[in-house]
Amino acid sequence: MTRTILGALLATASIAAPINAQTAPQMTRDNGAPIGENRASRTAGESGGVLLEDTTLIEKLARFDRERIPERVVHARGTGAKGVFVASNDLSQFTSAGLFTPGKQTPVFVRFSTVIHPNGSPETLRDPRGFATKFYTDQGNWDLVGNNLAVFFIRDAIQFPDMVHSLKPSPVTNRQDPNRFFDFFSHTPESVHMLTQLYSDLGTPKSYREMDGNGVHAFRLVNAKGDVVFAKFNWKSKQGVKTFTAAEAGAQPFNVHTDDLYANIKAGNHPSWDLYVRILKPQDIAKLDYNPFDATKDWYGMEEIKVGTMTLNEVPENFFAFTEQSAFAPSNLVPGIEASPDRLLQGRLFSYADTHRHRLGANVQTLPVNAPRVSVVNNNQDGPLTATPKDGDVNYFPSRSAPKATETAYRQPAYELDGLAQAKPISKTNNFAQAGWFYNNRLDAKGRANLIANMAGDLGQVKDPKIKTIMVSYFYQADTDYGTKLAKAVGVPMSQVEQAVAEYKAEEAKATQLAAR
Ligand code: HEM
């Protein structure tokens, strides 16, 4: 039966009606030369081999062979949309960044993503969700490369490759394995805040439209006078925050989030988010019982100032050209917005631009989705796929015949440093308090029950009792109710949890003594 249908299809293909040359555009090779036959290879007679001189065939196969670029090493599965950001509140007292002038419209491109799972994986798997925004401002591109969750697992970039290795499929079994990532996290107590958020239903958003976004890091804002404050940015969905339970997420179609986003935009139901900023003055840093440049911490309780609204109103005309080739980098900053000393952010300043040169090449920022909407004036040049060569023969600086300006107003202000060059963990680690606060203040009874069940589903698979006990002891230190319920759910006796807490506290006291020396 199958053979009959296939045979019929093949027969149909070979007798397809000729295309009307009057109306259809003439096909060409990539060199523009017209193609006379696009369905039969050139062969040596009816029964002979295919000829190497069939350049149409060879070019077609060679181009096909090169259609894929490396997928993002993380955040591979994603979807993008175009839109606009409209500023509503004057931020000039804090930053000289022009995009925050009330009424100012700045075009944006946004890409949402999952983190660990590969391109082509279901969109509803438990994961943080990437929320990356490229603002095409009048002073160059500003990329706010954030997540839906407000904090991160680790506080130092040097741990990122190890953490991602533990979360990615095992190099032996090729499967994600809680034994591996909880082994890593049992050495990383600062991950407890993020793990609590991830295993709540926020780890399975209902749609990309119905989730918030967070810049996570502190940024340094500088105003026209050179005054400095620190700031965190976050997006609040005007559609509200909605989540799936684990069971609901598991029952969704494979492409549900992309389909939802595209369908709503195409129907004119354009999703929008308000952008908020929280400001921390340098003189207030010492008052906090945590380090505000520690990405495992949120700035709970600080005033949020609304600065504008972003609306997504256009589905990109081509997925590969826009979404796949989009390249967001925390190092894409504009005057008035600078990096803070956050050690995770400092590592990201290098990593993204580096991976883009590997994934997309040296000319990544000339691709339409990445190109700034202002002139680029510098002497960077050449490299693979140079489509926009620089004018003139002065490709050096300085020059009398073709001078270029470097306005001193754009110099980054100096800041004071103290201390030793050293590789030493931060003080004021305060690893658990905010996780406990989140558990009690951001989750209702059902949310807490779902968190315990979701966490137990993965932690319960861990074979090494030591890893399981240490993990439970961390959650117990965040909140005793949380830890007690989790201990019961994964079968760890409370006496062992208490013992692990005592061991942790002894280690912590030793580390504090050492750090004080
Ligand atoms: C993507 C590295 C932490 C959010 C990526 C990519 C790399 C990377 C290499 C792939 C980029 C590409 O191929 O275009 C790192 C490192 C981190 C870190 C080294 C820590 C040191 C974070 C944090 C956040 C985050 C804390 C959230 C605040 C994202 C997002 C993307 C991404 C949203 C996807 C961007 C897109 O849609 O193209 N990260 N990451 N990452 N990362 Fe990170």
UniProtKB/TrEMBL annotation:
Its cofactor is heme. Keywords: Heme, Hydrogen peroxide, Iron, Metal-binding, Oxidoreductase, Peroxidase, Signal. Gene3D superfamilies: Catalase core domain. Residues 1-23 form the signal peptide. GO terms for molecular function: catalase activity; heme binding; metal ion binding. Pfam families: Catalase, Catalase-rel. GO terms for cellular component: cytoplasm. The active site is at H75, N147. InterPro entries: Catalase (IPR018028), Catalase_AS (IPR024708), Catalase_clade1/3 (IPR024711), Catalase_core (IPR011614), Catalase_haem_BS (IPR002226), Catalase_immune_responsive (IPR010582), Catalase_sf (IPR020835). Residues 28-405 form the Catalase core domain. It catalyses: 2 H2O2 = O2 + 2 H2O. It is an enzyme of class 1 (oxidoreductase). Residues 22-46 are annotated as: Disordered. It comes from the Bacteria. Its EC number is 1.11.1.6. GO terms for biological process: hydrogen peroxide catabolic process; response to hydrogen peroxide. Heme binds at Y352. Belongs to the catalase family. Decomposes hydrogen peroxide into water and oxygen; serves to protect cells from the toxic effects of hydrogen peroxide. This is Catalase.
